[in-house]
């Protein structure tokens, strides 16, 4: 199984367009790189402070990676129906009531995406008047990801709305494969320690 098959979620395929699978894969890989970079920068910050020679710019890197990972992750989670989605309410329903609730939920998510785009862009523009220390980088560099995340959330929500209205939201998922776990015989030895 290729890495792409593991990263692109196959659940609820009836709500997804195959053309966005590459985008989901790229965003998942970006999230992984951002989380790895965040962990690495935190570790480096701790080590440099412990040895008495702190690199102050690491705090800027850490906060930037953290914020970008959160907002890109929110967009990916929207495509995967893992975030900004109230599954307990809708999955208990079938037929027309489920269709109505699913549409209403996604309209609310579209409203959240619109707020992220609008207010995120306003913060981005205002961020050119404030600067991060010690680098002097405009704080807008932190806010740039917010409207981008809102646009991706809106795109993935529209994808789900169109496909859900066309094909229905209520599709039974195939059962997940159970991994066979070999039985352990009580007489088996643990080996020499």
N-to-C CA distance: 36 Å
Helix-strand topology string: HHHHHHH
Largest sheet: none
Instruction: Quote the beta fraction.
Output: under 5%
Can you put this structure into words, describing what you see?
The chain is mostly helical and 193 residues long. It is 63% helix and 0% strand. Helix 2 runs antiparallel to helix 3 and helix 5 runs antiparallel to helix 7. The model has no long low-confidence stretch (mean pLDDT 86).
Layout of helices and strands:
Layout: H1 3-7, H2 21-50, H3 57-79, H4 87-91, H5 96-126, H6 140-143, H7 145-167
How would you summarize what this structure contains?
The protein contains seven helices and no strands. With about 190 residues, the protein is mainly alpha-helical.
Structural features:
193 residues, flat
């Amino acid at each position: 199984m290729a890495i792409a098959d593991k990263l692109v979620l196959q659940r609820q395929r009836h709500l997804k367009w195959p053309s966005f699978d590459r985008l989901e894969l790229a965003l998942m890989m970006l999230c992984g790189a951002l989380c790895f970079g965040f962990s690495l920068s935190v570790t480096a910050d701790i080590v440099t402070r412990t040895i008495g020679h702190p690199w102050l710019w690491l705090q800027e890197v850490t906060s930037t990676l953290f914020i970008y990972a959160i907002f890109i992750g929110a967009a990916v989670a929207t495509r995967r129906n893992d975030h900004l989605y109230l599954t307990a309410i809708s999955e208990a329903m079938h037929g027309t009531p489920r269709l109505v609730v699913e549409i209403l939920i996604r309209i609310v998510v579209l409203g959240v995406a619109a707020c992220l785009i609008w207010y995120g862009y306003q913060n981005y523009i205002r961020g050119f008047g404030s600067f991060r220390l010690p680098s002097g980088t405009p704080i807008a560099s932190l806010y740039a990801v917010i409207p981008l995340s809102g646009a991706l959330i809106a795109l993935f929500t529209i994808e789900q709305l169109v496909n859900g209205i066309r094909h229905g939201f209520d599709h039974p998922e195939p059962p997940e494969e159970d991994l066979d776990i070999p039985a352990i015989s009580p007489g088996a030895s643990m080996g020499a320690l």
